[in-house]
Every structure is written in C-alpha cells, then in structure tokens.
C-alpha cells in the first residue's frame, strides 16, 4: 500500500488490518495495534490467532471456512476477548482480497462496545419504564376515585378503570375521545372549570357537580382539578372525582326530614299555643268579668291556671328551640366570648347578682371561639340562668367563669355556689326533660341543658358536668378556637 | 261607621279581636269570615277600613289570600294586617313581601289583646 494510504488508514478510528492466507498480519493500522496492546513491529507478521485465547480459536477459524472467492465477504458482530485483556464487541467485515499474485484477507472492525452497552441500558430502562407504567396503571385502576388526564381542548388523554366503568365503557374506548362527545351538555361546564384552572394555574378542589355521562349511570361527584404546568405549550389537567351520589341522596333525605321536623315543630308550636292562649285568656276574662260573683278561693284557682299555662308555654317554646337546633341553623363566625359574657352580665344579670349582693366573675382575657353568636348567648344564658335558679337560699350567689385553651379548644368553666347536682344525675341532666332532682318550687322545662348540649355538639364542642356532689355545680364547655391567632 | 273584616278560622280569636277593637272604638262594624275563600268578594262589597287576616288557616292560608287580594289593584288602598299564633321571622318577612301593612302575634293575655286593639285603632281606624 502507498504511504499516503497507510497514513490515512492509521488515523482511522476503525480497526483495519490485512493478513495472508496463513493468517499472518501484513498490515495493521494504529487503532488495531492499540487494540491489541502491542507495537506495530510485534503485530506485523504475527499469527492472527496468537492474539486470541486458545478456547476461541476454533470458532474464529470457522469464519474463514465460509469466505471463498464466490462468497468473499462476511460481516459479523462478535465479542472479542483478546489475550492481552482487551475485551470489546466488534462489528467486523472480513473480505477476501485477491490481486494478481496476492491473496489476502482484509478486515475492518468497529468497536461498538459503547453502542451495545447503550442499547442494553436502553432496553433495561425501557423494561423498567414498562414495568412502572404497568404498576402505575394497576395502582390507578385500584383507586376507587375516577381519574382523568385531559388537555385544554377537553380531550381525554388517559383515564383509570373506575372512570371508564362509570361511563359504561372500557379505558381503550374512552382514551383519545373528547368530553363533548361523551358527556353532552354537561361537558361545557366541565370544560369551563378546566379552563379556569388552566388560566389561573391554581387547583380547584371539592367541586360538587352533576355527573351525566351519555352512557353509564348519572349521579353526583366531588371533583378536584389539578393543573400540570410542565409544558406551557401543551397544558394538561388531572381531574379526580369521587362518587357522592349516595351522599347527595342521603343529604336530600335529611333535608326533607329536617324540613318535615321544622314544619312539625311549627305546627306543634302553633296548635299547642292556640288552646293554651284560649285557656289563659278565658280564665283572665272570668276573673275580670265574674270575679265579684265567685268565692274568694277562686282567686287561687285562677293563679294555678295562670302558672300552669305559663309552664306549658315555656315547655312549648323550649321544645321548639330544641327541635329547630339543626346544622342549618348554625352560622359559624369568630365570636369574642368574653365581650359577649360582659354584655350579658350588663344587660341581663344585674338584678340577680349585684343587686342581690352576689358576684359574677368573668375572665379577663379575650376568648375567641368559632361559633354562632346568638346560639352561644343562648347557651350561657341557660347556664347562668340555672345558677340563679338553683342558688342556695342561705348565701349570696357567686358565679365564676374561667377559661383555658389548648391547641384546638377553649375550655370554659362556669362554676357556682348553688345547690349542686347529684353525681348520679351528671348525664341525665343533659337528656330531654331530664332534671337532676324534683324542684317543685322551681319552674323549668327540662330542656335547657339538652338544648345546650345539642347546640354545643352542632358547634363541634362538648359540655359536661365537672363537679359532683359539691356545694355548687360546675360545667365545662369546650368550643373550637377561632381560626385566627388569638394570643 | 268604620268597617273591619276579620278572616280567621278560630271563633275565639275573632271574638277576642272584635272585643279588643271595640274597647277602643265603639263605632265599628265587623264582618267575620272563617276562611279566605270569598275574601276578595267580601272586601269588594264591604270596602273595609282594615282587613285582619290570620296566617294559618286550613285550606287556603293567609298568604295565599293576601296574594290574591293584592293582585287586584282595586284593593291597593285597603290596609291588610296579618295575625299569627306565634312569632315566626319567616312569616313576618313573607307577610311584608306579599304586601301586608302589619304583622301581629296573637297575644296570650287579655291585656295584650286590649293593647293590640288600641294599636289597630290608632293606626288604621
């Protein structure tokens, strides 16, 4: 070969060599020499197979059996573990070169070890990806929520089994379809909500919406719409819906029951008060118009009628309040209980406390709770009213209200020095018409504390009697702290 | 003589309203109706100075009667006050919405009725 050609071949990165029919090197470029880990002088004239381990020689020789003048070229990919320790995967083309008086093999090999390793790595990664996708699909399909992955054109790109089943279709049938084709008119409102999320980039959570697939069962769902903003050019959204149809049906039933109860309460209130009013007024008219003609003892009878009517009226009104205390009747807000108690003390309790030589001690710190102002007023008016009603005859009334807070609640304790409550009655007093002991001289409906407990329960709080068999009684009311920092 | 129409299914309540108004004004004539069925005809005939209308009545309730009367512009100038056995915020709001001129709760005492009578006399008669 010419020196110029040699020079070109020497700089070529492929392994290029020639050898005679006795498989002795007649030429090897620099890449080949370097691959064999020897000098050019050591390689030239050396026997090809002397560079291979003994156990691979037969295999290599077999290649030359199939290279003939009729079939002068063979391409093969082989792992070449050389004696010198070089180990590579070569993509080699061996050709038979026949000149006028020369017969030689020429071999061009490319080291494709890196490519093969890369291919193996890719294959392995593809397998891992396939496995992860299979696992992800299994997980998604095991989730009871309905999950859709959509674009901004309302196209469903992917969905889980629950979502497809809810539409009476398979995953494959739905994927790639447009929501407008599957949900009719409702698709517009779904799309509008999606677009809001795309525009704001902020998730919408807890969206209650009617679910009306053209196939499948209609119902109600609670939906979260979560934006995926990795690629602004191709926005995506994850829609996760939970079937709340049963809940909605129960809610409708409950609303209907509550409405019936409210109607019933109004009816009871009206229909019971009408005859009561008639009794009271007739008795008054008798006393006014016929009093002179009746014996003196009749006056006591009129008084008894009046007291009976008054008691019955209290019962009806308390019962009505109890019946009407429902979740719908509670309007939660931040209430400064200390300010409310001060206001109540100024407006309503003056006569019972300061005028009678008693004391009402209120907390100094602000108690900020989450509650309905009017209902909270009702609770504490009831508790303070009980303290006044059941005060001891032999000592001035003393009532102390204290408060302590923990992470979640304010615990407000109302303690008095009154007649107290039996230990055995600590729960009974919170029952409807449950009073701790007979109080023939004290008028009460037996509804007050039951109403207190009902209202407090509706606030997510508790009320309990904490003093038992002590000279006075002590009630602890726990109410949720207001959300804002309350110091 | 001032004319007053009282529409209430309760004999007793009609009697007490008449007693209460009469105690404040002697020159009043009353027309009693125990339902609102013919209320519009009677009002057209009597042209009362005031109509007192109970809310809760069997059949057509007071609100329906009120709506029917107020739907006729001929009766625009006739004061109509609603009267109810119990205080209901929703009823009070509904009464105002339907064009009632007043809302009273039936008092639980003779003194209360007398006060109601005086109030009606001073405002409407």
UniProtKB/TrEMBL annotation, chain B:
Record Pfam families: Response_reg
PTM annotation (4-aspartylphosphate): residues: 54
Keyword Zinc: no
Origin species: Algimonas ampicilliniresistens
The organism's place on the tree of life at top rank: Bacteria
Keyword Transmembrane helix: no
Record keywords, A-Z: Phosphoprotein
PANTHER family tied to this protein: RESPONSE REGULATORY DOMAIN-CONTAINING PROTEIN, STRESS RESPONSE REGULATOR PROTEIN 1
Residue stretches making up the Response regulatory domain: 3-121
Protein name per its UniProtKB record: Response regulatory domain-containing protein
């Amino acid at each position: 070969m010419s020196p110029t050609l040699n020079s070109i071949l020497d700089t070529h990165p492929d392994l290029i060599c020639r050898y005679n029919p006795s498989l002795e090197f007649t030429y090897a470029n620099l890449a080949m020499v370097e691959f064999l880990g020897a000098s050019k002088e050591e390689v030239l004239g050396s026997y090809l197979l002397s560079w291979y381990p003994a156990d691979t020689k037969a295999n290599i020789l077999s290649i030359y059996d199939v290279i003939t003048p009729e079939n002068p070229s063979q391409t093969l990919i082989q792992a070449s573990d050389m004696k010198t320790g070089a180990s590579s995967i070569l993509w080699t083309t061996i050709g038979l070169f026949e000149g006028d008086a020369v017969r030689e093999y020429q071999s061009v090999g490319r080291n494709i070890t890196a490519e093969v390793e890369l291919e193996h790595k890719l294959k392995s990664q593809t397998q891992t990806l396939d496995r992860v996708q299979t696992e992800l699909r299994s997980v998604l399909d095991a989730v009871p929520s309905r999950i859709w992955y959509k674009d901004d054109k309302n196209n469903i790109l992917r969905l889980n089994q629950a979502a497809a089943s809810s539409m009476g279709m398979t995953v494959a049938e739905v994927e790639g379809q447009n929501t407008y084709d599957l949900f009719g008119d409702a698709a517009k409102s779904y799309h509008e909500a999606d677009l809001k999320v795309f525009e704001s980039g902020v998730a919408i959570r807890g969206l209650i919406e009617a679910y009306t697939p053209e196939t499948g069962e209609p119902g109600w769902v609670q939906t979260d719409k979560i934006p995926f903003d990795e690629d602004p050019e191709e926005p995506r959204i994850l829609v996760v819906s939970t079937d709340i149809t049963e809940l909605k049906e129960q809610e409708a039933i409950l609303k209907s029951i509550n409405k019936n109860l409210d109607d019933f309460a109004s009816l009871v209130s009206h229909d019971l008060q009408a005859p009561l009013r008639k009794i009271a007024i007739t008795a008054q008219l008798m006393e006014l118009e016929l009093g002179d003609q009746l014996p003196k003892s009749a006056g006591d009878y009129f008084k008894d009628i009046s007291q009976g009517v008054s008691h019955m009226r209290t019962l009806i009104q308390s019962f009505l309040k109890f019946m009407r205390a429902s979740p719908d009747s509670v309007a939660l807000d931040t209430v400064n209980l200390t300010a409310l108690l001060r206001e109540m003390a100024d407006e309503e309790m003056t006569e019972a406390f300061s005028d009678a030589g008693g004391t009402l001690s209120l907390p100094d710190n602000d108690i900020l709770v989450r509650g309905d102002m009017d209902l909270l007023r009702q609770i504490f008016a009831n508790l303070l009213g009980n303290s006044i009603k059941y005060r001891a005859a032999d000592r001035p009334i003393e009532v102390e209200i204290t408060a302590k807070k923990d992470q979640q609640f304010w615990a407000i304790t109302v303690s008095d020095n009154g007649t107290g409550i039996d230990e055995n009655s600590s729960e009974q007093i919170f029952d409807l018409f449950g009073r701790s002991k007979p109080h023939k001289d004290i008028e009460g409906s037996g509804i007050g504390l039951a109403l207190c407990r009902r209202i407090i329960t509706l606030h997510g709080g508790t009320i309990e009697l904490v003093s038992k068999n002590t000279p006075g009684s002590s009630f602890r009311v726990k109410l949720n702290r207001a959300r804002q920092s309350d110091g | 003589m001032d004319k007053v129409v009282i529409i209430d299914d309760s004999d007793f309540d009609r009697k007490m309203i008449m007693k209460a108004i009469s105690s404040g004004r002697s020159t009043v004539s009353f027309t009693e109706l125990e339902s609102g069925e013919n209320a519009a005809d009677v009002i057209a005939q009597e042209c009362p100075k005031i109509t007192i209308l109970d809310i809760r009545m069997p059949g057509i309730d007071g609100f329906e009667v009120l709506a029917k009367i107020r739907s006729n512009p001929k009766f625009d100038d006739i004061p109509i006050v609603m009267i109810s056995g119990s205080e209901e915020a929703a009823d009070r709001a509904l009464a105002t919405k339907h064009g009632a001129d007043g809302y009273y709760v039936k008092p639980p005492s003779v003194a209360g009725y007398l006060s109601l009578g005086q109030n009606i006399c001073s405002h409407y008669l």
